Amino acid sequence: MTDQHPALHLRGLAKRFDTKVAVAGVDLAVPTGSFYGLLGPNGAGKTTTLSMAVGLLRPDAGEARVLGYDVWADPVRAKSLLGVMPDGVRLFDRLSGAELLAYHGLLRGMDPAVVDQRAAELLDVLALTDAGRTLVVDYSAGMKKKIGLACALLHGPRLLVLDEPFEAVDPVSAALIRDILHRYVTGGGTVVFSSHVMEVVERLCSHVAILAEGTIKRVGTLAEVRGERSLEDVFVEVVGGRTATGEELSWLSR
Ligand SMILES: Nc1ncnc2c1ncn2[C@@H]1O[C@H](COP(=O)(O)OP(=O)(O)OP(=O)(O)O)[C@@H](O)[C@H]1O
Which atom of ligand 1 is nearest to the CA of 18? Predict the structure, then answer.
């Protein structure tokens, strides 16, 4: 079932909150082995799209499949192949990092000995060993991202979906996360992540989709989307936005 399918396949995903259309019919096929960046300005619908894609938010219309398995019709199989780091911190933060990992592993029905061994390895690789006994509520924002990534990786998923993994992360930790994700893709995994940071997407991604106002505006390999220009130029052109006249906020000048 799995290998002939895209790692993630979204068809016609749509979501409205009251009168606000957050996502207006997103189609996306993420090839296995790709490093896929979902770019978009604030409020574009990235979190809503990814939440629907991984089974955290029920769409009004459309479907999401992980390696061929429908996340809503066949959630157990789809979620066994999927590791997710949601936006914000939806972690049980009154646990220590080590306890949180143990909780995630046991919830997934993993062998406790395997959970212990992988948790120790992940805490070590993510430079969180010293924080293993600290409660997650007392972690910094960057440490919370890293423990969130560890939880997503623990069961050895085939697809990782990460919402803003580099937000609030210092350069050293960002390099560490980049390295881990790069190794994960080299080892046959697929990563989809959302970001506003062009430089990160340009450096890491094989494929890019630009989302604005709830729809995909550009999609393809990085080379196809960028063409001869920088990704930032393409992004600004696609997303539009206000151009300063120089007259604004004149009261700030002395
Ligand atoms: N639970 C909700 N209730 C009402 N409106 C919502 C809800 N979640 C999202 N929205 C709205 O849907 C739109 C898309 O939001 P979303 O969080 O998906 O965007 P985003 O691209 O992830 O933005 P950001 O980069 O700022 O995180 C926004 O206008 C937002 O205000």
Answer: 4
- Closest-CA residue, ligand 1 atom 10, reads 22
Whether the ipTM is more than 0.90: the answer is: yes
Domains assigned to the chain: 8-89+160-239 (3.40.50.300)
Average pLDDT over residues 220-245: 87
Q: Among residues 209, 212, 213, which one has the least CA distance to residue 201?
A: 209
In angstroms, what is the span from residue 53 Cα to ligand 1's centroid? Answer: 15
The pTM (predicted TM-score) of the whole model is 0.91
**pLDDT one-digit tens code per residue, 88-130:** 656 777 889 999 999 999 999 999 999 999 999 999 999 898 8
Structure tokens at 146: 């890293």
What is the C-alpha separation between 178 and 169, in angstroms, rounded?
11
